[in-house]
Amino acid sequence: MTLQLLKKLTESFGPSGFEDETRKIVQEELEPLCDKVWVNTLGSVVGLKKGKGKDKDRKKIMIAGHIDEIGFIVSHVDEKTGFLRFVTVGGFDPKTLVCQQVMVLGKGKHKLPGLLSIAGKPIHMQTPEETKKGLALTDFYIDLGLSGKEAAKKVEVGDPVVWLRELTEMGDLVNCKAMDDRVGVYVMIEALRKTKGNTHDIYAVGTTQEEVGLRGATTSSYEIQPDVGIALDITLAMDIPGSEPHAQVQKNSAPA
Ligand SMILES: [Zn+2]
Question: Model pTM?
Fold first, then answer.
């Protein structure tokens, strides 16, 4: 199995509402596999692979995976220090953000690498009480390594941000940002690649803005009016230390 496509999909820049880069990859993959490919009003990309059945017998099967990912939006650029403040797009646990590398899509669509840092004193300067304090999303800022003047020239309020991560193979697993739901989109494309001689019409849809309310999936469903809908998305495996066996949905060991 080639992971080249999964790598391209997961590493691409596509927070909700800014899915252009990911959409382009999906569109290019769907073109040779489908009879028709189009982008609808809310930015979802649809590939139709017509069925071989008679017109009156053919059903519409919609397979959907969302192309957007969680991320951030710049809410303030400090013109003195160059540090950025942000709000989140989708849900985040603050514990997972400490010292993460990010990518800001600045003015003119220029990509700028940055680091999520915590406002306040470093740990060796904190009182014991201060070290017990939990983290809030508002404690973080993005350091671009730029002066205030340079940051203000390159970034403005409203610019989107995602994690910066390369796909890494670790044993039997892979690690990257945006597995939710680029792995679903990957499965959709690979399944379509293997589909030969389908009786019914298949609509493969890369949907937008799932993380902020399933918007692209909703509007695409109204457009296509499918008889059958299959949504591909991730879940929590719960196969890690601290998880209860009854909550486990995925066994850690591969089937024999
Ligand atoms: Zn998802």
Answer: 0.91
